[in-house]
Design brief:
It is a multi-pass membrane protein. The chain has four helices and four strands; from the N terminus they run ααβαβαββ. The protein has 179 residues and is mainly alpha-helical. It has a single domain, classed as Orthogonal Bundle (Non-ribosomal Peptide Synthetase Peptidyl Carrier Protein, Chain A), CATH 1.10.1200.120. Helix 2 packs across helix 4.
Length: 179
């Protein structure tokens, strides 16, 4: 005899209420902005990484490769150990790998370092621009605060010179002079 999965009365209303609470908490968590900002940043970072990879491999590497005798920077390597049978001279990295040679792929490493430096420079520049913009915004807000004050009755920002709040129409005291 098979036992039913749910025995007795099930509190469906309680389950639905808990599910609604959980859904509401999740919505509040997502709406806070940090999660959305993180998701946008991750997506933008991935796209930015693709752009930098293309810049390095399609623009910078070919220019650097002009100074090198062979095909490209990524193809630069040194043979550390020759294969047991055969030659120790290879024209490409793929040929050396296919023959079983152990190689030091210094060209790929240099290309990765260039990519890292470009990303670091771009991130540093963005942080400097963001910091400068936030400083300007902070100074602007401070200058507005010197011109404005808060209504003690309705907590709305009003002019320092106001004698009556334009929002709640309460009579206001004269503002204290700041030195």
């Amino acid at each position: 005899m098979v036992k039913p999965f749910l025995q007795g009365d099930v509190d469906v209303d309680g389950f639905i209420e808990k599910a609604d609470t959980l859904a509401s908490e999740f919505k509040d968590f997502i709406a806070r902005g940090n999660v959305v900002d993180l998701a946008v940043g991750t997506i933008m970072g991935g796209a930015f990484g693709a752009i930098v990879a293309s810049l390095v491999s399609d623009v910078i590497t070919p220019v650097v490769s002009l100074a090198l005798p062979s095909s490209g920077l990524k193809e630069q390597f040194s043979v550390l150990r020759c294969p047991k049978a055969g030659t120790c001279t290879f024209s490409t990295l793929a040929a050396a790998s296919d023959a079983g040679a152990i190689t030091l792929n210094w060209g790929a490493f240099v290309q990765s370092v260039i990519s890292f430096l470009i990303i670091s420079l771009c991130v540093f520049s963005m942080i400097k621009i963001y910091t400068a913009a936030m400083t300007v915004d902070r100074k602007r807000r401070e200058s507005i605060r010197q011109v404005a004050r808060m209504c003690p009755f309705c907590d709305v920002e009003i002019s320092r010179k106001a004698k009556r709040c334009p929002h709640c129409t309460s009579a206001l005291e004269e503002p204290k002079k700041t030195k």
